[in-house]
């Protein structure tokens, strides 16, 4: 794998980490008007994201078995962005439906955050194991590759957390941040898809 | 070395001072904060957060009917806009100064109090003379969630007191255009809103423009805090306000609410830039703005 393609794999993994944490933080904002922002609302949100990521890891590992490619990694990133789109379009309507049917704010917020964020987060979870498969060339260095990848993706998560909560919310509206995040994902994913057609 | 000894002695002395003047009666770590109840001279006070954190509420042990904090006296100014409330909602209980004062003035007035922290409700009952009953209901809920739910019910209020903020933390979802629109929906036509808010920091401008966007003109009362007074169907002129103040004077006097102190604070000046960004559910970094 060329160093350019390798760099892109790392970039996608780091960006995906940023993307997931930024969305997780913003989900609190989206849920607060109807469910408050008590500790249990955050408990529900974090549960949904952790559960979705765990399933995503499993799925991503399975997907990486058959003819893995940078192009497919790019497609996963694009798909994660596209499945976030309903949050912008339908979150108000969906949250209203849940609010009117579930009076306990714990289960209300758990249900609403599942409906909005479960699928995009599962897809985002596929990125890391899939990227490791693309990076590993020798058994000997597999642990090292996985280590660097975890570093990059979790570092991205940290950046997404602090960047969103300290700065982005002060500058932009929630939906504007969502659109920005999705655009960057689609851009990066498209580059990965385009690179493939050039080189192979 | 001498300097060190001096410093140590001084520190020890200071500790001694605070030990003799303030007696801590109760401390508790609740789900949301550290709560401390302490007695200092003739005051029984409630404090959140760290030692030496800001006092949330104090009750005068010699004159328990007295409202100790200026902001609570300004909040009672809401009655100048509507002297005969039929049903009251208070968001944020604290040391229960406001519900206790209203109860004394209006023995038969239904008062609903919403407080997010069950521990605060317990402490108010145990130490600050808050007595829940069928007339004084205390509900454990997030304020915004309560308001949103109440909108689906027929019940409306002609006085709403918003007292859910302190200097250390603002529930950001309770300082947005959407929230205030929901609160407006809970008010009767003649309904009055009194909000205890911020007078310093950059947040002042943001908050002012947000209230103005939802309600139009309001009376702005400033002291260490700022209290916003609004009437849904339009602000009464000062003549009406003064008339109500005179009628209420004898009832409010024992609480320390004097019209000659309070009335000059009523201002309609818009002393914030008109192009300030409105706080919305999409944009509400209130805590970050409050530090600026």
Query: What would you give as the CATH superfamily of chain A?
Result: MFS general substrate transporter like domains
Average pLDDT rating of chain A = 94
CATH class of chain B equals Alpha Beta
Low-confidence stretches of chain A: none
Low-confidence stretches of chain B: 9-20
Strand and helix order of chain B: HEEEEHHEHEHEHEHEHEEHHH
Number of domains of chain B: 1
Order of helices and strands of chain A: HHHHHHH
CATH topology (fold) name of chain B: Rossmann fold
Relevant CATH superfamily of chain B: Vaccinia Virus protein VP39
Strand content of chain B: 15-25%
- Note the main sheet of chain A: none
Description of the structure:
The complex is a heterodimer of chains A (200) and B (292). With 200 residues, chain A is mainly alpha-helical. Chain A has a single domain, classed as MFS general substrate transporter like domains (Growth Hormone, Chain: A), CATH 1.20.1250. Chain A has helices at residues 3-35, 39-63, 70-82, 85-101, 105-135, 142-171, 174-199. In chain A, helix 1 (3-35) runs antiparallel to helix 2, helix 1 (3-35) packs antiparallel against helix 5 (105-135) and helix 4 packs antiparallel against helix 5 (105-135). Chain A is elongated. The N and C termini of chain A lie close together (12 Å). The model of chain A has no long low-confidence stretch (mean pLDDT 94). Chain B has 292 residues and is of the alpha/beta class. Chain B has one domain: Vaccinia Virus protein VP39 (Rossmann fold, 3-Layer(aba) Sandwich), CATH 3.40.50. Helix content of chain B is 36%, strand content 23%. Chain B has helices spanning 2-21, 70-76, 78-81, 97-105, 118-127, 143-151, 177-186, 203-215, 238-252, 259-262, 286-290; strands at 22-29, 34-40, 43-48, 55-60, 88-91, 111-115, 136-140, 157-162, 187-197, 219-222, 226-231. In chain B, strands 7-6-5-8-9-11-10 form a seven-stranded mixed sheet, sandwiched between helices. A four-stranded antiparallel sheet of chain B has the order 1-2-3-4. Classes of the chains: A mainly alpha (200), B alpha/beta (292).
């Amino acid at each position: 794998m060329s160093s350019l393609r390798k760099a892109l794999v790392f970039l996608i993994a780091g960006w995906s980490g940023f993307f997931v944490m930024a969305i997780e933080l913003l989900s609190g904002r989206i849920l607060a008007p109807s469910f408050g922002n008590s500790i249990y609302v955050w408990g529900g949100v974090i549960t949904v994201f952790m559960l979705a990521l765990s399933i995503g890891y499993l799925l991503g590992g399975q997907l990486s078995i058959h003819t893995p490619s940078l192009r497919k990694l790019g497609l996963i990133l694009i798909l994660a962005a596209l499945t976030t789109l309903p949050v912008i379009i339908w979150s108000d309507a969906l949250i209203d439906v849940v609010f009117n049917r579930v009076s306990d704010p714990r289960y209300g917020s758990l249900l609403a955050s599942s409906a909005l964020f479960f699928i995009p987060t599962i897809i985002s979870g596929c990125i890391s194991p899939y990227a490791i498969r693309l990076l590993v060339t020798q058994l000997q260095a597999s642990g090292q590759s996985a280590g660097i990848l975890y570093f990059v993706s979790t570092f991205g998560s940290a950046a997404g957390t602090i960047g969103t909560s300290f700065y982005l919310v002060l500058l932009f509206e929630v939906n504007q941040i969502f659109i920005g995040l999705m655009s960057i994902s689609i851009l990066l994913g498209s580059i990965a898809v385009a690179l493939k057609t050039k080189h192979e | 070395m001498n300097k060190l000894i001096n410093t140590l002695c001084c520190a020890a002395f200071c500790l001694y001072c605070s030990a003799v003047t303030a007696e801590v009666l109760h401390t508790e770590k609740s789900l949301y904060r550290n709560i401390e109840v302490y007695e200092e001279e003739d005051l029984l006070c409630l404090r959140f957060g760290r030692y030496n954190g800001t006092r949330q509420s104090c009750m005068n042990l010699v004159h328990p009917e007295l409202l100790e904090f200026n902001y609570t006296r300004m909040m009672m100014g809401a009655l100048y806009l509507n002297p005969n409330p039929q049903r009251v909602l208070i968001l944020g209980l604290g040391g229960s100064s406001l519900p206790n004062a209203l109860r004394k003035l209006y023995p038969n007035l239904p008062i609903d109090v919403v407080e997010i922290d069950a521990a605060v409700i317990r402490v108010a009952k145990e130490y600050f003379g808050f007595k829940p009953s069928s007339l004084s209901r205390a509900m454990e809920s997030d304020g915004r969630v309560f308001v949103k739910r109440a909108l689906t019910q027929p019940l409306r209020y002609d006085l709403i007191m918003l007292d859910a903020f302190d200097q250390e933390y603002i529930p950001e979802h309770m300082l947005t255009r959407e929230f205030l629109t929901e609160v407006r929906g809970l008010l009767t036509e003649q309904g009055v809103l009194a909000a205890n808010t911020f007078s310093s920091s950059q947040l002042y401008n943001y908050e002012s423009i947000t209230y103005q966007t939802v309600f139009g003109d309001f009376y702005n009362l400033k002291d260490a805090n700022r209290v916003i007074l609004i009437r849904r169907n339009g602000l009464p002129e000062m003549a009406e306000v003064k008339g109500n103040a005179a009628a209420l004077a004898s009832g409010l006097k024992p609480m320390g609410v004097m019209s000659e102190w309070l009335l000059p604070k009523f201002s309609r000046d818009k002393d914030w830039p008109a192009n300030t960004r409105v706080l919305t559910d999409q944009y509400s970094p209130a805590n970050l703005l409050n530090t600026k």
